[in-house]
Amino acid sequence: MSYTDSSGDKHNESLTITPSNTTTDNFSAMSIDDATHQSVDYGPIEREKLGDPLLPHLASHGQVNNDSQPKSLARGMLAWHVNLISLGGIIGSCYFLGVGITFNAMGAVPVLIGYFLAGVAVFGVMQSFAELLVNLPRHGSFIAYNREFLGDALTTAIGWCFWLNWVMYVPSECLAFATFMNTYYTIPFKNKAWSDFVWGSICLVLLTTINLFKVKCFGYVESINATLKILVIAFFAIVALFIWFGVIGDKVHPFTDERVGFIGSKIITQGEGTMAHRLFPNGYLCMVTYLIIVLVNFQGSEIVGLSAAETQNPEKNIPNACKQVAIRIIIVYLIPILLITLIVPYDKVPKTDSVFAFALTSYGLKWAGKIFTFITLVSAFSCANSGLYGTVRSIYGLSKEGLAPKFLSTLNKFNSPRNAILFTLSFIWIVFLFGFLSQNLGVFGSNASSLYEYLLNISGFFGTIMWIGIIVSQIIFRIKMKRRGYNPKSDIVAHAMFYPYLHIFSIVLQTVGLFSLLFTKTGWTIFAAASAIFLSIVFIFLILQKCGKISTNAVYAEDEVLFDMKYPQKTYFGVDHVNLLDKDKLLVQDPEIH
């Protein structure tokens, strides 16, 4: 490596960075031979051209893996896999069944506003995630970024809570899968509830098989599922539009008592009282109190980001997929919900059945119910599959960063995290059995069913915390870049759109959603329980770390990039030059800690 000193003379140097044993990231140790001054700064682009000369600086956080054994996740996800999954991969049974609950509780206009605001918040999350994924490629996904920018304690809590989020949610989708399978064939047990158990178990076995094999299998399965869901939603939108125009339907509309014709705003504005009361029948505050429930419908959007380490050409495909989240929000959520509000009164919407099937059958399309029963079945399996994939990658990321047992980052011959999958599935089975015994058999009494529902609500709380963590990490990433003398506009690629306004709005909205739980009848207990779990993990980590029971020395693959490696400090505290042979100055403290 050559450089020019302050006198204009050109020198050559060999640069070696000695591994540091500290885990606090406050100091970096350097030893440089045959150099007297330093007055040149290498930006991220130049550093990549030079082959990342400071690559050994990874040792300050851990060490680079140069073993011949496969230590990295396989890049088996194709571009079209990622694009389809980003559009429809995480649409679960909660979407087809849960929209009716929020619609009934909020009213037509509030539910539209609520889903729009939640969509904007999620779009902000994905913009932040994409910027981090492209500029700092890491196998640990959001876990790695949280650790680098939020610290070990908070990262441990966020990571384990995200893992708990899906461990509690995946079994509910398996039980939903069983319920819909029973509509096609009920296994002849004396107690029909055992048919649910068998179908749910089959679902879990299929999930295990798919996730243990090559990630390409997961990509193909989820792409097919996503295609089916998108096609059915598009079909509903087209049919609902024809109903609204009066082309499809019986001679008399079921909700207007008028002859077939253009519905217009008749349904959305029907009722008594002022126009404001008819448009907001349950008041304005419901948009806040039900915000967290609406946000749950978007959970799983982060799966695209979690797949970055297993995606081919991620620097191109991941940003594209994250940008498509905006398209998905419009196509999958806003347009179908708008059409529902135009053809079905909010107070007629069923709370337990699919509002999509109800809307079409109400207008004489009796066969539509079977289509939506099937697609809800597919959605339940798909969401469980994506959820298992995501939660396994989170626990794998924790293990990679030294925040979970090392054996959880072991890969099998397909380069899939086998131990993390089996470890996660063991807990999913426990929750599945608890859910089945409490809800289907009533073994633990009536209160057990309510407890299971609390667990599901707590999972939504944890998912929102994880989203906030992603945005905060990206904001700190930008701040640290500026402090080190870099310009984010020129020194990073795949810039997050509408930064920082969109991201601040997203954080505020999600925070309001979390605290709104305190003002609902059962929400405050959910808030208290989730907060207690989160803080307990933080305190347990700090205690174990203080006792020396936790080692956060991590091992990184060659294609992983840390912030300190790519964006070193450009100046040395305002000094024009530093004698790098001065032994007293070999240990340089990071100026950002002052």
Structure description:
- GO terms for molecular function: amino acid transmembrane transporter activity.
- Its main location: membrane.
- Residues 1-23 are annotated as: Disordered.
- It holds the Pfam family AA_permease.
- The chain has 594 residues and is mainly α.
- The chain contains 21 helices and eight strands.
- It has helices at 44-49, 79-88, 93-106, 108-135, 141-150, 152-181, 193-212, 215-245, 275-279, 286-289, 291-296, 303-306, 314-343, 355-362, 368-400, 418-440, 446-483, 488-491, 501-515, 523-546, 563-566; strands spanning 2-4, 10-12, 14-16, 27-29, 31-33, 62-64, 554-556, 587-589.
- The strands form four sheets. Strands 1-2 form a two-stranded antiparallel ribbon. A two-stranded antiparallel ribbon has the order 3-5.
- The two termini are 31 Å apart.
- The model is unreliable at 1-70 and 573-594 (pLDDT under 50).
Main traits of this protein?
594 residues; mainly alpha; 21 helices; two-stranded antiparallel ribbon; 8 strands; globular; Amino acid/polyamine transporter I
How would you summarize this macromolecular structure in one to three sentences?
This protein is mainly alpha-helical and 594 residues long.
